Amino acid sequence: MEILHDELIQNLPVMMWRAKPDMRCDYFSKDFTSFTGRRLEQELGHGWLEAVYPDDREESFRVWNTAFNALEEYSTKFRLRHHSGEYRWVLSRGRPFSREGKFAGYIGICTDIHDQVVLEASLRNKEAWLADAQTLSQTGSFRWNVRTGQDEWSDGTYRILDFDPDVTPTYQRVVQRVHPEDRSHFVEACAKAARDWGHLFVEYRVIHRDGTIHHVQTQSRPETEDTFVGAVLDVTERRQTEATLQRTQYELSRVSRVSTMGELAASIAHEINQPLGSALANAAAAARWLNAEPPAMAETKETIQELLADIRRASDVIKSLRALTSKSQPNFTHFALNEAALQTIKLIKGELDYRKLSVSFELDNEVEVLGDRVQVQQVILNLLLNAVEATGDLSDRAGSIGLTTSLVADDRIRICVEDNGPGVPAHAQKQIFEAFYTTKTSGMGMGLSICRSIVEAHSGTLDYADTEPTGSSFCFTLPIAAKPQP
Description:
Helices cover 46% and strands 25% of the residues. The chain is α+β, with helices and mostly antiparallel strands. The protein has three domains: 113 residues, PAS domain (Beta-Lactamase, 2-Layer Sandwich); 78 residues; 150 residues, Histidine kinase-like ATPase, C-terminal domain (Heat Shock Protein 90). The strands form four sheets. The protein has a five-stranded antiparallel sheet, with helices on both faces. A hairpin with a 5-residue loop joins strand 8 and strand 9. The longest helix is centred in the middle third of the chain and has 28 residues. Keywords: Coiled coil, Kinase, Phosphoprotein, Transferase.
């Protein structure tokens, strides 16, 4: 079992490390040495510092040393030399662990966040540039005669719509430049503004002569009884930035899932070791039945069935782990919510057993919801882990955690995770969903922020409430999958 446990740890998709009480590292996972391209012997002790970027080395060791002296969890960001020679940003998180009640050292993970750090810096620069550009540059302007269909365009409008300056501007020319999928929407918006003699605001795509697609906004107001005056703005970069931000948000959410899986390594190993241990016992029993004189075929068949069930249990845990750490893009499908919730709880069963906690269930009738199963499980997992942390160290009462699902409308279902921990201080309740805000002594404060972003991407809400007499309740809603028409 210990060999299987070590293999599991080695094959987790994270860079893991372990340090002894004297602060000297005695273990690095394969992912860590594969990342740095250095031999294990080079990393042991304080050798890992040699691969840290020189300007980051002192601060990294200071955070490390401070955490060790205080026996506290820590989280720090620094640049680590990749085997390619490039220094890449990593997030290192560690926490103390004990054996037989005695401090035995630190265990932690490093996560490659370089692409996210660089992308976020680039996006900040682009956003600043766009803000300056919109302030300093002139947008395209036009005058449109509704009665004759004739237009007057500024140079900026010619450029945005990709017409040569000697072309006679007309409404019909604009319509032909609009993307076919947006054309009817554009025409209807213009017709309504002309019919109601009101303000126009419409966003659409235009196809330039080189085949590139640009996103354009047009705003106008009536000027005389026959004409509108307005402006056009190319918002292509803004839309591309928003799409990039969405991709960044998804990648950040995946990094959070991988980090969580690393922290739950021992718990997951426990969940795999149990069925594997049972499988070994059943395999031995089957061998004994077959060696009997005569062979006990009925007992052998029954034992093999139990063996297969054990293997399936271990396989299910591994499949769940792979799904939660995969890089697949968001995939909105119909799935059974209660089944997904119960499967998520299995991943933390070892942690629950270690802290002598259990989760009570109050599940509504099984319904299918519409969403990304992995992301929804990530939200449930984060809320459950927060509840475990809140109740795991209570001294005056036994910790309790509850998970409920309930219909709140014909098309919505609410999922709640409650605990009887100390709750969230009143002054912090409005900030707990903000990025980088945390009431903990460690961590980046991204968990609840990511959870809310995921839920809102599912057209739902995530809220917090106190429970009586003490404790926390986090509830979020999801849309129920539409039933197929008969």
